[in-house]
Amino acid sequence: MWKVGIRLFNICLVCCAVFFLSGREELCAQLTDLLYRSDSHIDTLRKGQLSLEIDNISFFKNNEFSSTVQKGYTLPGFWLQLKTSYYPLTNLKLEGGVHSIWFWGSTRYPAFAYKGISTWNGQDYARNVHVLPYFKAHIALSEHVDIVLGDIYGNSNHHLIEPLYNPELNLTSDPETGLQLLYRSKWLHFDTWVDWMTYIYNLDTKQESFVAGASACFMANSPKSPFHVYFQLQGLAHHKGGEIDITDEDVQTVANGAAGAGVTWNSNRKVLRFINAEFDLAGYNFPKGRAYTFDKGVGFYTRLTVQLSNFNVRTSYWSCRNFMPVFGSAFYGSISTKEKDMLYEDPALLYVGADYIHPLSKGFAFGMKAEAYCYLSGKMYNRNTGIYAPSAFGNNASYSIGVCLRINPSFLLKQY
Questions:
Q1: Side-chain half-sphere CA neighbours of 233 within 13 A
Q2: What pLDDT does residue 246 have?
Q3: Residue 50: what are its φ and ψ, rounded to 5°?
Q4: Which of 56, 125, 191, 387 fits 407 for a cystine, CB–CB 3.0-4.6 Å?
């Protein structure tokens, strides 16, 4: 079955290449949109408006990870964007300002763009503050096509499944910057982007680094139909290299991809809003560079989501072989980030999570999240000796709980 899965994943990679590494549009407006996603549409009625916008998420998240997969840690802090927004044309929006992230009690921050504080090793840091310039130029070329330059609509706006993208990055990562193409029609939602993470100069001592990705969702019928069916392709590729640096590091490209289908029952009742079931085939590939441990791998992901009033409850089952997530949680990988040189043989994961999200007013929302990860199978062995450990995961259950507040008001300064 694993060999068949790997062959299917290779086919998916070809499809993702056609779509420039694609991803998915969530078809049912979920409450989590209020916390993590940004509106990527241009409001044609705001031509000539100059506004002040504040975008902020304050969070406290505690990860009690007791297994051998990953060490636990706590995230207390917030990120803040202060920016002005101007519509010189009906189809053009410009935003400019600053972005900053703060962790309570921290006295140093990364001096470069990063994807997660839990994986940052403390090198190349700046003291006291982490502030970045923020600029976005968003133009609607037509009714269906949008181009974004500068700070793009990233993180959860790409709608990637959790084995490919850890939702915690909505709290800890810097804004994605580069180029983005958005296409939206009745039957297809498509998002492709390049996130340029590290720029280099001639004879630089570090490698350039960027991420290319895409997200496509094909809708068989209207998302508002009582039973809605959709199909999706997703992909990410993280490239490290460059021709003008003087490092001894190999040029490397690591890729994840996914293809799947889902069905949503829109009950639209007072308590039970919808039920969504989805299955995805995911894969890992190392097409270029010195392979870490695996050159390719595959995983199977099944998820069930139920929205009950202000609660979003979901459970998923994941099994994989030789899978390494590019930006997904370590719980979806075959490598221990806690135990040195230890690998997992065909691990399986049962996940249960729940969100409570309370809309306070337009631009304001409060949320709480609880998650549990439980390993059901898999053996752990040393990559060098091949000797199996007596217990693969130690205490199999890990937990996470957090709260956050999203503040995103807009104040009209002047109408030109």
A1: 23
A2: 82
A3: -110, 120
A4: 56
DSSP, collapsed to helix, strand or coil, labels residue 10 as helix
Closest by Cα among 37, 66, 56, 164 to 400: 66
Q: Which residue has the higher pLDDT, 369 or 207?
A: 369
Q: Is the pLDDT of residue 287 over 70?
A: no
| Triad 151, 235, 172: Cα angle to 5° | 45
The angle formed by the CA atoms of residues 169, 171 and 177, to the nearest 5 degrees, is 65
Q: In the numeric block, which tokens belong to residue 335?
A: 């490598």
Locate 299 and state its tokens.
Answer: 């995983």
Instruction: Retrieve residue 293's tokens.
Output: 């441990």
Query: What distance in Å separates the CA atoms of residue 92 and residue 102, rounded to the nearest whole number?
Result: 32
Region of residue 317 (phi > 0: left; psi between -120 and 50: alpha; otherwise: beta): beta
Dist. CA 92–CA 86, nearest whole Å: 8
Give the three-state DSSP class for 374: strand
Structural element, H or E, at residue 13 = helix 2-18
- How would residue 187 be classed by pLDDT, with cut points 50, 70 and 90? very high
Interval 150-168 mean pLDDT: 95
Contact 218, 15 (CB under 8 A): no
Is 123 buried (19+), middle (13-18) or exposed (0-12) by CB count in 10 A?
Answer: exposed
144 or 120, which is more confident: 144
Cα–Cα distances (Å) from 172 to 116, 169, 180, in that order, read 5, 5, 21
Q: pLDDT, tens digit, for every residue of 86-113?
A: 999 999 999 999 999 999 988 777 655 4
Between the alpha carbon of residue 134 and those of residues 22, 150, 173, 343, the distances in Å are 25, 8, 14, 40
Q: Are 335 and 293 contacting, i.e. CB atoms less than 8 angstroms apart?
A: yes
